[in-house]
Amino acid sequence: MKRVVSVSIGSSKRNHKTKAKIMGIEFEIERIGTDGDIKKAIEIIKSLDGKIDAFGMGGIDIVLYGGGKNYIIREAIPIKNAAQKTPLVDGTGAKNTFEKWVIKYLQEKNVIDFKGKTALVVCALDRYKLAEGLYEAGCKLLLGDALFALGIPLMIKSLRVFYYLAAMLVPLIIKLPFSMLYPNDDKKEENPKKLRKYWKYFEIADIIAGDYKYIQKYMPDSLEGKIIITNTITKEDVEELKRRKLKMLVTTTPEFEGRSFGTNVVEAILVALTGKKLEDMSQEEIEKLIKEIDFRPRIEIFY
After folding, report:
1. Average pLDDT over residues 151-168
2. CB 227 within 8 A of CB 202
3. Does a structural domain hold residue 54?
4. At 156, phi and psi to the nearest 5?
5. Strand 118-121 relative to strand 140-143: parallel, antiparallel, unpaired?
6. Which 3 state secondary structure label does DSSP give 174?
7. What transmembrane ranges does the database entry give (predicted)?
8. What angle do CA 262, 264, 269 make, to 5 degrees?
């Protein structure tokens, strides 16, 4: 049996362990959250290093993309370095390959007609390929990085502007505490006045895409008629979305016993299967392996 553990600096309330058979091999897949405690994440990784097949790193990325370059996030370095024997991945490779492929899959299977729809991508910095896929499928884009991640009342409406701003800002963003950029708790903003600046974009969007923690924190009470494309969804999240009258839920990662794990887990599974380091695998090789495994997006139509 192969064992994959995702160590996340996100909430421990979302912890989960399951077993799955992938390409004839038994896997034990576990997610361990540390409630924002980076030191605890490092301790867990060190205690399991060399004892499991692959680590996923959740709640924080190793790199952000900007201006044609990958920039390493300063706070992620000690977490990455804690794994000396077991490979550790953050999901970036799977995001860049799998998420764009999922949009094509949904289009080809006539699940969603993207042409002319407005897609709100809550944060495109770590999901720029998802944004590209939506644009190429015919969507009008609303890119919420400035608003949702930085609190700046600006909505970016083109990939060209996004890439220009990313080239300027990412070298500065990587130096900020990651807690300032990413909502790694389960708290929802309760002040209606503060929420209005976010709600209006949810209301005009047909499709809401990106990291579920951003979506969950800022989404309005009603999601009637909306489509969400995201990942890392629990059973409790699904029930919450049903109560808000969501039309359709798509998770870019597959479901294991009612739970959709993050792309870091998908990537860790690929590494455990092949025995290769991620940096030694091309994008084409990753995509081919995903197809061989037959990982498909989870699609649920509620209303």
Report:
1. 90
2. no
3. yes
4. -85, 130
5. parallel
6. coil
7. 162-182
8. 105
